[in-house]
């Protein structure tokens, strides 16, 4: 009897595990099956490197969006990583216990805010700010980068903080015992020891930034052109899909799915490098 | 010459009195060993000598500890104190960086950035601990790839690289095999011509082998402090005798 129920449970667990794997496989199959033919039809280099996206003229060059995504993400990293890392250092090594009890839930909450709310915040606060100080419409590369920089903070902070905390105290003590100041000990002995984990946090942040859609659509301007300048509009891969999917048909629709394939490949690269880093960090 | 003069030292962890009225003078260029059972306060006393106890929350100190003639709990630069008083820990703790960078860490901290000067310091420090020949071809490899004994000697070299006057060793061989242990002991004896060495050890034979003076601690009290020979052959206190003859501990 016992053996029987054990077997049943085994099957239940196996099914649960299979569902997630099957979901991933199905997504892959769907994406590539519906995206790759369009890429072939448009031509690989015309699609990936073409610099004009004009569906009404049957021009499907996704290069401006690739560059847009890369720029916006790079900007987010430039803004989010230093702030996030310093915040993590503060939380792990300096923060008084009382303040920590406020700070930690606040950071967790930051992670839980829906992206549409971030988008509104960007639209109502950051856009007018940029517009007022730098001119232009305010919906631009800079605004998107700032907003995404804020959005990736919780990922970078929590991963970095836990990795900094995991560094054995004897590195810190060893450095102090050599006459190093507290700051030097933290930045030169503790942080290098947590390097791999911090890198992993940054890569997770990149993944979040490049995949973000709603918030970016609201503040990036969405012009499907090569980005030129911080205060000009950009369109990201994600924005490209969500903006046109509603009315697209035929090759246009397939080209949008192909855009998703490009995005998927980006995420794949990011995840693989995350896994590779993790493996090195575990050793 | 007295390197350290400790007067009426008492140390509290919160309400717990970990050290009771310690008075002692530690001679320079000698090896002084602290022995005693676990929890007797010997490591605690060692850590008061370079103020590593500052890191322990709720740690309070009364009395004076003088290095040369300066009260180290007075108005002094703690980082400078720790430059003068190096420390080697129980578990070898090389930083997760290259062998070279481990040694260069201290000098860089104190403002030496000239490549030639650093090279010189690294070589000299590694020669001083007799592992130069073993590691000279892999200075840029991670220090974590070395054996435990090599790591501990690297940590001693790292301490030497900032040119300290005193070296504190907190059970430096307790995590090592017998061969590495004897190498560290030889090294300590080589170094005492130039440095004042204070070593905490669980191992009475070790204290007897290498130290000039030995202090025996029990329950936060310094029971006896004398020449090592005297303390091990004709202990004055019954408790010392009981401990060194193995009746407890």
Automatic annotation (TrEMBL), chain A:
Localization per Swiss-Prot or TrEMBL: Cell membrane
Gene Ontology CC annotations of this record: plasma membrane
Entry-linked InterPro entries: MetI-like, MetI-like_sf, Phosphate_PstC, Phosphate_Transport_Permease
Assigned keywords, A-Z: Cell membrane, Membrane, Phosphate transport, Transmembrane, Transmembrane helix, Transport
Chief location bin: membrane
CDD domains, alphabetized: TM_PBP2 (cd06261)
Domain ABC transmembrane type-1: 66-274
GO molecular function, one term: phosphate transmembrane transporter activity
Topology relative to the membrane: Multi-pass membrane protein
Membrane-spanning segments: 12-39, 59-88, 109-130, 142-164, 185-206, 255-277
GO biological process: phosphate ion transport
Coiled coil spans: none
A Pfam family the protein falls into: BPD_transp_1
Presence of the UniProt keyword Electron transport in the record: no
Domain of life of the organism encoding this protein: Bacteria
Stored NCBIfam families: phosphate_pstC
Protein purpose: Part of the binding-protein-dependent transport system for phosphate; probably responsible for the translocation of the substrate across the membrane.
Family affiliation: Belongs to the binding-protein-dependent transport system permease family. CysTW subfamily.
Protein name: Phosphate transport system permease protein
Organism in which the protein naturally occurs: Lentihominibacter faecis
Upper lineage: Bacteria, Bacillati, Bacillota, Clostridia, Peptostreptococcales
UniProtKB/TrEMBL annotation, chain B:
GO CC annotation terms, alphabetical: plasma membrane
Organism placement in taxonomy: Bacteria, Bacillati, Bacillota, Clostridia, Peptostreptococcales
GO terms classed as biological process: phosphate ion transmembrane transport
Main location group: membrane
Sorted UniProt keywords: ATP-binding, Cell membrane, Membrane, Nucleotide-binding, Phosphate transport, Translocase, Transport
Keyword Translocase carried by entry: yes
Gene3D superfamilies cross-referenced by the UniProt entry: P-loop containing nucleotide triphosphate hydrolases
Pfam families named in the record: ABC_tran
Signal peptide residue numbers: none
UniProt function note: Part of the ABC transporter complex PstSACB involved in phosphate import. Responsible for energy coupling to the transport system.
Source organism of this protein record: Lentihominibacter faecis
Domain ABC transporter: 4-244
Membrane-topology descriptor: Peripheral membrane protein
MF (Gene Ontology): ATP binding; ATP hydrolysis activity; phosphate transmembrane transporter activity
Matches recorded under InterPro entries: AAA+_ATPase, ABC_transporter-like_ATP-bd, ABC_transporter-like_CS, P-loop_NTPase, PstB-like
Name used for this protein in its record: Phosphate ABC transporter ATP-binding protein
Record's subcellular location: Cell inner membrane
CDD domains assigned: ABC_PstB_phosphate_transporter
